[in-house]
From TrEMBL:
TM helices/strands, residue ranges: 180-196, 203-219, 225-248, 260-280, 295-316, 328-346, 366-387, 408-428, 440-457, 469-489
Protein's name in the database: Chitin-binding type-2 domain-containing protein
GO MF annotations in UniProt: chitin binding
An annotated GO cellular component: extracellular region
Domain Chitin-binding type-2 as annotated: residue spans: 37-96, 115-177
Signal peptide from the UniProt entry: 1-16
Presence of keyword Transmembrane helix: yes
Keyword field: Membrane, Signal, Transmembrane, Transmembrane helix
Keyword flag Acetylation: no
Organism name: Acanthosepion pharaonis (Pharaoh cuttlefish)
Length: 493
């Protein structure tokens, strides 16, 4: 018995994988990125060194050191078991659950949906809920990287607790986070409309009612539709602020329009168009946490802008030289509420809360720099607008509209900073670079806009110390984004 015990300690377990099972020490760029991400110091110390290949379930990767590794291939057609961390036999086809439609072939999981099968202790052929209630996700333990989607028979929906498809009439639907968030949003919207109706004339009521009905229609179509609607609205609003800035200010404010007013509203439009560029670039991202991050950033920015709008509407209502009109309250404020509320709903309905492991790389360093600089500027514009105005302009009589536009611009910067701070946890390098490219284009457009505004006003409304602020601070901000766009995405030890 002692001899057998010693042999058990010395001999390796069958199919256990280690460095000696590697067949190649030359990695592809995608494999190199995965190794840099998973082969951390803590993983090597705790011997968590084997993980699945990103594109082939017959292959695996092994950490040989921190941020270094090799690849191997399972023998005899075996597949890599990402839970047991070993090569196993080819998977047996899973049996469809009761109530599933056998005539509809299984489909691969959509890229927009997070793979739920990468969980420890998951039994073979376990079923998960799909975003659509009449579908389900089949997890095979040996192919956790390639789950399939099945469909229930007509009139049936999937019951996760019972792991079967059952008639929708017999299925008891419990209000989860999805239903509660939607119901609360609709309830809140109805309350807002009722409160505003007390002082509304028929014109405003029709406009708000129409906007609310369109919003309810869009929000019921799903996250993908909302994503593209948000993108389109950002472009349209940004272009309107750029092209129709004087007309917009006359309808929303009761103020004598000056160069600073026009510059700030157009700057806000540029930031909106830049955010739309980012949303377009990552629209097909395989990292679903990217879209959740964009929507959460929109929520933070929208809520900040809403605070600024309400403050300007009611705090400056008796200021005859710079106050907001009823159109601002019933059109702009309501639009901000609906826009923000839509993103709140889909953020609450999302299950993709986490990002991925943050690696030490030059690209991530530039993203962190961008986060700090953008956040600090956003806070300065939002929290200290009067101080910023006195530093940047020569206007002797500042009004509430000046401060309001500075706060709204600050809210947009805070929203953008949230994305930069989160982007270092994105899985795909191109998604990270898209944020820096967006920052680069936004800043270049802002510099051009300032130059045009500075020259058109004959230097009268901008202070002398504002020029070094723009040329110095914004130049550093822009150069950081430029260098980040072309920086290395991983770090070698």
């Amino acid at each position: 018995m002692p001899i057998l015990a010693c042999l058990a300690l010395v001999l390796p377990v069958t199919e256990a994988l280690s460095r000696i099972d590697c067949t190649s020490f030359t990695l592809t760029p995608s494999e190199d990125r995965m190794v840099a991400m998973y082969c951390t110091r803590s993983a090597v110390i705790s011997n968590q060194i084997v993980f699945g290949h990103p594109g082939d379930n017959h292959k695996f990767l092994v950490c040989t050191d921190v941020s270094a590794g090799c690849s191997g291939t399972c023998q005899n057609g075996a597949v890599f078991d990402n839970i047991a961390k070993s090569c196993g036999s080819a998977p047996v086809s899973c049996t469809l659950p009761s109530g599933a439609d056998p005539n509809i072939p299984l489909q691969p999981l959509e890229p927009m949906i997070t793979n739920p099968c990468n969980q420890a202790g998951l039994r073979t052929c376990f079923l998960f809920k799909h975003n659509m209630k009449n579908r389900f996700i089949i997890c095979d333990r040996a192919t956790t990287t390639n789950p399939k989607v099945g469909q229930c028979m007509n009139g049936f929906i999937f019951n996760f607790n019972r792991q079967v498809c059952e008639s929708s009439q017999d299925h008891i639907i419990t209000c989860g986070r999805n239903e509660v968030s939607t119901q609360l949003a609709i309830f809140f919207l109805i309350v807002v409309i009722i409160v505003m109706q007390l002082k509304l004339d028929s014109t405003y009521l029709r406009v708000i009612g129409g906007m609310s009905l369109v919003w309810l229609l869009i929000i019921s179509r799903g996250q993908k539709v909302w994503y593209y609607i948000d993108l389109i609205l950002s472009v349209l609003a940004g272009c309107a602020f750029l092209i129709l800035a004087p007309q917009f200010l006359r309808s929303q404010t009761d103020v004598h329009i000056d160069t600073v007013h026009l510059f700030m509203i157009r700057s806000f439009g540029i930031v909106l168009i830049g955010s739309a560029y980012l949303w377009w670039q990552v629209r097909n991202s395989k990292d679903v946490t990217v879209h959740t991050t964009l929507m959460w950033a929109r929520v933070i920015g929208g809520f900040s802008a809403l605070l600024a709008q309400l403050f300007a509407q009611f705090f400056y209502k008796d200021n005859k030289t710079g106050r907001m009109t009823e159109e601002h309250l019933y059109i702009s404020v309501v639009s901000t509420v609906l826009w923000t509320l839509g993103n709140v709903i889909y953020c609450l309905r999302s299950k993709d809360w986490g990002g991925y492991m943050e690696t030490q790389s030059k690209l991530n360093t530039f993203l962190r720099n961008d986060f700090v600089m953008t956040l600090m500027l956003g806070i300065m514009f939002f929290a200290f607008p009067v101080w910023m105005l006195r530093m940047q302009t020569n206007i002797s009589k500042l009004n509430g509209v000046h401060a309001h536009l500075y706060r709204v611009f600050g809210s947009a910067l805070i929203s953008s900073a949230i994305i930069s701070g989160r982007a270092s946890n994105f899985l795909i390098d191109s998604d990270k670079r898209s944020q820096l490219y967006a920052r680069l284009y936004i800043n270049i457009a802002l510099i051009i806009l300032f130059a045009v505004s500075y020259l058109s006003s004959k230097h009268l409304q901008w202070s002398a110390q504002n020029t070094p602020f723009v040329l110095g601070g914004v130049a550093m901000w822009t150069l950081n984004a430029l260098f980040g766009c072309y920086s290395s995405s991983y770090h070698r030890t």
